[in-house]
Specification:
Layout lengths: L4 E4 L5 E5 L5 E5 L3 H4 L5 E3 L9 E3 L6 H5 L7 E4 L12 E4 L1 H6 L14 E4 L4 E8 L2 E8 L2 H15 L14 H11 L9 H15 L3
Antiparallel strand pairs: 1-2, 2-3, 4-5, 6-7, 8-9, 9-10
Length: 209
């Protein structure tokens, strides 16, 4: 018999599973039958300690009960909430892609991954790491410009797997600067079509009438 209490939304599409400790996970209602007899607990901390998972007594994750295994792929929680296991929050990805969708590290002091203040220049610098290659995106006078640069870097290299920050409209000079930094690493990009589009745009601008 399960130790989870299930509550269904008014429209019958979503189910909320309340664990003995009061924690609540969410799944699609039509998936309850797959797990209705399983006892679940909170555990399975990620390596960085930022995330917990819903697991059974043997350490098997809730999402492994709900979604089939695919060789060479991992389950990624799009919004980083490992207690949200609805289909709309789940995607299959490679290990590299999964590493692109990570929460803020505990030792981060700026509030944005890949952005930090660089005292020797009295500027903010933006960086991005792809397949163990760190790409320096540039130094910027303001924190906001460095965040915008980081957003463009993620768009170039991570595509849909990036964790974007709300930084407002990105001026062309930052976009061009970052793309020129990233284009040397286009072969590592999960969004290589971005570079193809950018090169076409640049060719169009450089064409004489």
């Amino acid at each position: 018999m399960s130790n989870v209490k299930y509550i269904f939304s008014d429209d019958g599409l979503t189910a909320y599973g309340e664990l003995p400790g009061g924690e609540v996970f969410v799944i699609d209602a039509d998936m309850v039958d797959k797990i209705k007899t399983v006892k679940f607990y909170v555990g399975g901390k990620s390596r960085d300690g930022n995330q917990s998972y819903v697991i059974d007594c043997r350490g098997r994750s809730l999402h492994d009960y709900l979604f089939e295994h695919r060789d060479g792929f991992e389950i990624d929680h799009i919004n980083l909430d490992t207690f949200d296991n609805r289909r709309c929050n789940i995607r299959y990805c490679t290990h590299q892609q999964n590493q692109m969708n990570q929460p803020l590290q505990k030792n981060n002091t700026s509030g944005v991954s890949g952005v930090s203040y660089y005292p020797p220049r009295h500027k903010f610098r933006a960086r991005i790491k792809v397949s163990q290659h760190e790409i320096h995106l540039g130094y910027f006078d303001t924190f906001e410009d460095a965040v915008k640069a980081r957003n463009i870097g993620m768009l170039c290299m991570f595509g849909q797997y990036g964790r974007f920050n709300d930084a407002g409209e990105i001026p062309g000079w930052i976009e061009n600067k970052v793309i020129e930094k990233c284009i040397r690493f286009a072969g590592l990009s999960q969004n290589s079509a971005f570079f193809d589009f950018w090169e076409v745009q640049m060719d169009g601008q450089n064409t004489d009438d």
